Amino acid sequence: MYVPPAFAETRPEELHAIMRAASLPVLVSPTASGLAATHLPLSLEAPDRLVGHMARANMHWREFDPHAESLAIFTAVDGYVSPNWYATRAETGKVVPTWNYQAVHATGRLEIIEDPAALLDIVSKLTDRFEAPRATPWAVSDAPANYIAAQLNGIVGIVLHITKLQGVAKLSQNKSMADRDGVIAGAEAENPALAAAMRRTLD
Questions:
Q1: Sign of dihedral through CA atoms 158, 159, 163, 165?
Q2: Residue 61 C-alpha from the chain's centroid
Q3: Residue 188: its H or E element
Q4: Does the residue 71 lie in any domain?
């Protein structure tokens, strides 16, 4: 991943926060016939361990090279930055559009999980994570056990054993304070999450 020094994010707690904020990562793996890519939820269960699952019918898990590294791509907040938001536009006119974003690339070896008890644990933890903010969270145990068992037959578990994390947080750090304030104000109306992320870089 191209990471300009001004935007490099290396703090483990921030890398993990970006990964947890990402809604749907992409897992990319080499196969004999080229790259395989799957969009799937992945949960950071430990600093060196990502866990998720994919459809058993997906050839990704059957064809990936177990001796090669796979890559999980996470994007948290992102958004377009209009030149109209920069104070510099009124001063010199020397401005262009850009895109601000947070991203993490997690590299590691894949492990496939097919044991029913382990699969149940994976889907239960993922469900609990995404249901937690709801007023009345749904749990896997709310469904009939035989129905869940049948559903588990249609998936395989995925564990990415992380060997490297690379992060970027491009949030206008290379701009003047006046321009940064302008982008925050502009993003506030269109993309409050981006504005909030930019404010955190000022703390």
A1: positive
A2: 20
A3: helix 177-190
A4: yes
Nearest-Å Rg of the Cα atoms of the chain is 20
* Inter-residue long-range contacts of 185-194, CB under 8 Å, 24+ positions, other chains counted: 185/85, 186/81, 186/82, 186/84, 186/85, 187/79, 187/81, 187/85, 187/100, 190/79, 191/77, 191/79, 193/77, 194/77, 194/78, 194/79, 194/100
> Helix, strand, or coil here: 171?
coil
34-54 pLDDT tens trace: 999 999 999 999 999 999 999
Closest CA to 180 of 78, 77, 87, 60: 87
Give the whole-angstrom CA distance, residue 169 versus residue 4: 10
Helices (H), 92-166: 116-131, 145-152
Structure tokens at 122: 């994976």
Do the domain assignments include residue 123?
A: no
Kindly report, residue by residue over 163-188, the tens digit of the pLDDT.
999 999 999 999 999 999 999 999 99
- Residue among 45, 56, 70 at smallest CA distance from 124: 45
Count of structural domains, the chain: 1
- The domain that contains 85 carries what CATH number? 2.30.110.10
Structural domain including 12 reads 5-113+157-196
Of how many residues is the chain composed?
A: 203
